[in-house]
Amino acid sequence: MDTNTLAIYIHELRNQCLHTEAAFNLFNQAMNNRAGPGVLFASQMVLMPSSQIAALLWPTRARSRGRGEAIRKVLQLPEKHPLNDRRLAELWERTDQKTEEWVTTTKGKQVVFDYVGDLAQLGDGNTPEECLYRAYSTQTRIFYYQGVGYNFQAIADAISDVAGRVNAVYRQLFPDLAKQEDEERAKAQAAQQAAAQQATAQPAAANDAPAPEAAEAPAEKPAAKKAPAKKAAAKKAPAKKAAPKKAAAKKTAAKKD
């Protein structure tokens, strides 16, 4: 593989690693906010670039395997790797056909859509994995899509490993660009630190600011106002279904004779 071709693949692999990192950031934010729909959205966003990386490094087509071997050799990647998963590499191929196949294989069975939480709380606690269309287990950190489970901790570790190797080669191929990016990143971090310090210093500079006890008072007032408003509880209940420990949505397929 010539240098120009290698540079293109390294640049794309680096971008996909950054996309995966961004998707994991969204995922963590959604988990912290207990936003079920956000968790499911971010989970699929994690799988998209992860699948691209797997396909580039471990192509399933015979005519492309030489390319994968050449790139892995440069990155010194072992053949045995968590991303070397054909299911992951081919995840988004023939998506409509795979959906039809899943519908056919689960016909007459109870299926689960868009669930975030403890799978042991589903039904009798023995829901087969093949019946999970889209779900995330908060206990095992496994995301299920069309009956296939993907271990997110393993994927995160694997992407981190690949990203470190890719970045090392990227710096060799694009030294000037890497230096420029380092400088821009350092400026951005300095600006963030300055903004944080300024935000922290502002309350102390205001001599007429209320005492700490008074500053805590506003946080207590909303709770006092919400206490008597129990009539709205029936309207708020649906919003709680988005919490990761509860089902975001659960649908069952009607059994056919």
Tell me what you see in this structure.
This protein has 257 residues and is mostly helical. The protein contains nine helices and four strands; from the N terminus they run H-H-H-H-H-E-E-E-E-H-H-H-H. It has a four-stranded mixed β-sheet. Strand 2 and strand 3 (142-145) form a beta hairpin. Helix 1 (3-32) runs antiparallel to helix 2 (36-57), helix 1 runs antiparallel to helix 6 (152-173) and helix 6 packs across helix 7 (175-205). The N and C termini lie far apart (58 Å).
Count of DSSP H/I helices: 9
Percent in strands: 5-15%
The strand line-up of the biggest sheet is 1-2-3-4
Overall pLDDT, averaged?
82
Structural class: mainly alpha
- How many strand units? 4
End-to-end gap? 58 Å
Helix-strand sequence: HHHHHEEEEHHHH
Low-confidence stretches: 205-257
- Rg over C-alpha atoms, rounded to the nearest angstrom: 24 Å
Keywords:
4-stranded mixed sheet, 58% helix, 257 residues, mainly alpha, single chain, 4 strands
Write the layout of secondary structure elements.
Blueprint: H1 3-32, H2 36-57, H3 65-75, H4 86-89, H5 95-105, E1 115-117, E2 134-137, E3 142-145, E4 148-151, H6 152-173, H7 175-205, H8 212-226, H9 233-236
Parallel strand pairs: 1-2
Antiparallel strand pairs: 2-3, 3-4
Helix pairs in contact: 1-2, 1-6, 6-7
Quick summary:
With 257 residues, the protein is mainly alpha-helical. Helix content is 58%, strand content 6%.
